[in-house]
Amino acid sequence: MSNMKFHFTPPNGWMNDPNGLIFHEGFYHLFYQHNPEGKEFGNISWGHAKSEDLINWEHLPIALQATEGKMIFSGSVVFDKQNTLNHPSGPSLVAFYTEHLFESEDKYSQSIAMAVSHDSGLTWNMDDPFTLKHNQSNDFRDPKVFWYEEEKKWVMLVALSLEYRIEFYESKNLKDWRLTGSFTSSGPNKNTWECPDLFPLLNELGHQQWVLTLSGDHPDGKGWGMFYFVGDFNGKQFECSHNYEWLDYGHDFYAGITFEGLSDRVMLGWCGNWAYAKDTIPKSSSNLSLPRRLSLKENRLRQKIALDSHLLEDLIIHQSEPIDHLKFTIANKKGEPIDIELSPKNIIIDRSESQLYSTLKTYNQLSYQIDIQEISIYQDNDILEIFINDGEFVITERI
Question: What is the DSSP letter of 69?
């Protein structure tokens, strides 16, 4: 059990990616990749929790349950307000998820499946025969579905993860989908592309731009992280207008997606890194990040904690503007020292004295050269989240 104050932690078992984030009937609903039977990765189902304030969470029964030979990988949830699904029980919550089937010990397939709920996500009918398959790829996953008001239709993004490509589909009824376009780029393309999200934001001039976020490579070329593209979306195709940017520069922010059903964009991410998560998280706890409200300025995302500042006062361990050269040590939950060094042009975090991370020679120190104008460092037991220059540069680090 975790002693986190504000970082979501499941009641038991393993957790990784957040799924199906939606604000519905006055509650933030969080679904997540979950093994309710153990702290190891496996038996992946969708856990479920809800909250009125993104701090206090009510843990609910497993939403989508894995079965023998099938795991329930990432996806999204929408509210079909207009009942475009033409369901006899009326408007419903509809989940689109990745059905991961094991055909043999070393062979699998992935396709998109659907489930429907008429009790605000408490129970789900997974018996619908709908599936969306790809005839050329078994790595076809992480559907993100949203309503595109301009054309009164649904849009779905799906990742062809090992081909570094996102495909776009459209539908009027949530069941009949037509491919409309795809997006790829020369980078980053070392690990994979997965967990896509696409949403509009107004920039500082009041103009709408679209942001495509993805999970895969890490800024230092080692491990796993998140990046994004800024561009335009015409309902069928995303066109990138700027080079990609990194979403988080720490070792432990992954698979972040945003809530549907809100007027702004609030993101949650998994505090983990596939390079070592399976070795470290079972020995500690699974957590999600603090909720982050996203904005766009000068074609770069800005991230700010989406909670009232007075609630976070006891989490702030350092805040300064401007920056002087400073070196200090904090302690993790076990009392082990974590060194932080700041200068006007540099930040260094060293977690090599943390027993859990000391053996990770490639990942136990982080150093970036950046012109630091102002900085806020938050510690919630064993997670650091650092926001630099109005949230333009963010670092998430488990300690």
Answer: T
Known active-site residue 17: yes
Q: Which two tokens stand for residue 367?
A: 């150093």
Q: How far apart are CA 251 and CA 354, in angstroms?
A: 14
Per-residue tokens: 373: 């104008």
pTM: 0.96
Return the C-alpha torsion angle 300, 368, 215, 238, nearest 10: 30
Report the CATH number that the domain containing residue 37 is assigned in CATH.
Answer: 2.115.10.20
Q: How many domains does the chain have?
A: 2
286, 307, 328: which is the final residue of a domain?
Answer: 307
Considering 17, 248, 252, 382, which one is annotated as catalytic?
17
- Residue (of 331, 368, 334, 362) closest to 349 by Cα position: 368
User: In terms of domains, do 269 and 326 share one?
Assistant: no
Range of the domain at 344: 314-398
Report mean pLDDT in 10-residue bins for the chain, 399 residues.
81 97 98 96 97 97 96 98 96 97 85 97 95 92 98 98 96 98 92 97 97 96 95 97 94 98 97 96 95 97 95 91 90 96 96 93 93 96 96 97
